[in-house]
Amino acid sequence: MRKLLLISLGVIVALVALAVVAFLVIDPLDDGAPSGDVVSLWPEVPPAHVGVVNDEGPVELGTAFTSKVEGAVAGVRFWWTPRNEGPHVASLWSSDGERLATVDFGETGGQEGWRTAWFDQPVEIEQGERHVVSYHAPQGNFAQTVGYSGQSYSGALEIEPGKSGVYAEGAESNFPTKSWESSQYWVDPLFMPRGKVPEAAAPADPKIVDTDDFKASGYPTSADTGVPEDWEPEQTYTGDLDVDEPGTVLEDVRIVNGVLHVRAPDVTIRRVEFVGSRIDNLQANACNNDLVIEDSSFVRGDTELFQPAVQFGGYTATRVKVIGLSEGLRAGGAEHGCGPVVVEDSYLSIAPADGCPDVDWHGDGFQANSAAPATIRDTTILLNHDEGCLGNGAIFHPENSGNERLTVENVLVGGGGFSFRLGTPGRVSGLKVVADSWQYGPSNVTTCDRTTWGAGNEIVSVSPDGDISALGPLSCER
């Protein structure tokens, strides 16, 4: 199968809160739009974490969906990016691959955004039937979101979380059946329901497993990570701070509302408190490796970072605490020379982004993208939820994103669509997933044939006193 390489992530943008909206009404004045209400899977605003795939090969991209009511599919829309050159032809398919309708989008151009085309005649479909809408991208360079686990915003249509995005390779349009890393390609059916449309089901509320007092026997907590209790900084910096000298040791300072730019190798960060601040060690497309971060805290400030506490790679984080940020730690930058990442004896408690659910928060505790080998050991990673705000995963290490191996040893995780997501070869032992903290499942592992699944991988409960009880084994499966 072709490697679909995500090369750029879009900026997170505001999504309209639709918890009380039954469906999205498309503008009836669109050229060729039929009369009557038309609903779709997603709102008019840009998709979540959309990126452009740098691949010029021809491909059919689609979305599998099921109608919850009777009605007719009147057209198709897809998220167009300027490098996605046409001609584009969209199709509606039955579940067994029969093409039911096609439409040509004509010339595409202008600003990035939704492109809409209407069939000559709406196609009647029955309640409960599975269909696929797709379009053909003859020049590739299409929109994609990797690891998408969201749901439909419409009460009339539904998708299977993590499995709705489908594709097929080929110079000619053909029925898409393949899937890759829970990717979504943002192809949307335009549906005319008959009768009353039920309200869109709100996501089930996963268990919120964290407070600042969270504890689990044998695992790091807020109390034994980060800067020591009663610690006071010797100096406070507001705004950005640069470290330019190799071998620098920066310790006992507080950084407020800034970025610590590590511009030299072999730097040590010790007992530093980052308030609304973060670390970036990739400067001028060169990574500054051998970065050591010890006994340091990252806490939420007055403004939302929408960035990880630490990036990109070539660092070791020991007894690090991340509290209240909407992204945790990131490993990446291998193409710029960033080395392996080690996270140990640390505590990460990730919170929904500011403005959620009016923004589509897609956060992770630990995320890898173009990363050298990564190791997480003796660490707690929790991804917390608010109503209508669901993050991606406590650990997200996808395949075909330039990542190498992941090693997990004695790690407690909870929260997210899937709490643990692995798509690369790896070695996993002593992984504990907090019961009922996830939305769709405790884990999504697509590389069991290339992963050593060791002892002690379990689903557990954690009592208020921190006692851990095993509820059953955590198997290596998708």
Automatic annotation (TrEMBL):
What domain of life?
Bacteria
Return the Pfam families for the record.
Answer: DUF4082 (PF13313)
Looking at the record, which segments are called Disordered? 209-233
The residue ranges of the DUF4082 domain are 51-187
InterPro entries, per database record: DUF4082, Pectin_lyase_fold/virulence
Protein name per its UniProtKB record:
DUF4082 domain-containing protein
List the lineage, top down: Bacteria, Bacillati, Actinomycetota, Actinomycetes, Propionibacteriales
